[in-house]
């Protein structure tokens, strides 16, 4: 029996400790990165899939859009995503037409007026905006917005009682850009 012990090679021990330390540093960096990405997408940005055709041709069914909501206050013309859980499972994507204190009117000819001025709406898909179930002119109360889809003939929006005026607290965020599909990447106006 050999009672002699092999001498400890300090270089091998230091090398093993260095590899172990390096692995821990990589794991720490990876976990930190994941936490930062989750925080960014929770508090600064969100990605939402468009469900339906009510915003065509601006947004298509299954487009992926990035939203922001930090310090956001709705403005006419903004494309917003809102929760409307009482009636719909999926978030709604619509364009803000009027904000609190403004008056909306839709004529029998399908023209949309805000505060007596006809809107120039080059983004709409279709020639006519039907009145829906609401009575016009309609003043938007404090804390609410009036929204319409860009594809008016198929859009369920503020013209209909199932949606109605949108409480600003239900707005998840403003759509900033399309990120998918890749051939449609770009900003929104």
Question: Describe it for me?
Answer:
Helix content is 18%, strand content 28%. With 189 residues, it is of the alpha+beta class. The longest helix is centred in the N-terminal third of the chain and has 34 residues, at 10-43. The model has no long low-confidence stretch (mean pLDDT 89).
Which features does this protein show?
189 residues; alpha+beta; eight-stranded antiparallel β-sheet; four-stranded antiparallel β-sheet; 1 helix; elongated
List the helices and strands and how they pair.
Layout: H1 10-43, E1 45-49, E2 64-68, E3 79-82, E4 92-99, E5 103-106, E6 112-114, E7 117-118, E8 138-139, E9 144-148, E10 166-167, E11 171-180, E12 186-187
Antiparallel strand pairs: 1-2, 2-11, 3-4, 3-11, 4-9, 5-6, 5-8, 6-7, 9-10, 11-12
Shape: elongated
Low-confidence stretches: none
Major sheet, described briefly?
8 strands, antiparallel
The percent of residues in helical segments reads 10-25%
Rg from Cα:
27 Å
Report the structural category. Answer: alpha+beta
What is the total tally of β strands?
12
How far apart, in Å, are the first and last alpha carbons? 84 Å
H/E series:
HEEEEEEEEEEEE
DSSP strand (E) fraction?
25-35%
Q: How confident is the prediction overall: mean pLDDT?
A: 89
- Put simply, the count of helices is 1
């Amino acid at each position: 029996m050999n009672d002699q012990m092999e001498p400890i090679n300090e270089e091998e021990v230091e090398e093993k400790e260095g590899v172990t330390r390096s692995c821990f540093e990589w794991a720490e960096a990876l976990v930190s990165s994941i936490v930062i990405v989750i925080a960014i997408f929770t508090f600064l940005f969100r990605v939402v899939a468009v469900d339906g055709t009510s915003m065509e041709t601006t947004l298509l069914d299954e487009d992926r859009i990035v939203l922001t909501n930090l310090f956001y206050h709705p403005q006419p013309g903004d494309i917003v995503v809102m929760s409307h859980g009482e009636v719909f499972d999926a978030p709604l994507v619509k364009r803000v037409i009027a904000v609190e204190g403004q008056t909306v009117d839709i004529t029998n000819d399908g023209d949309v007026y805000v505060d007596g001025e006809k809107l120039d709406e080059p983004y709409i898909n279709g020639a006519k905006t039907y009145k829906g179930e609401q009575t016009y002119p309609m003043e938007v109360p404090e804390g609410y917005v009036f929204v319409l889809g860009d594809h008016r003939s198929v859009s369920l929006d503020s013209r209909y009682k199932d949606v109605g005026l949108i409480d600003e607290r239900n707005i998840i965020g403003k759509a900033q850009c399309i990120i998918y599909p890749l051939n449609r990447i770009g900003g929104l106006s």
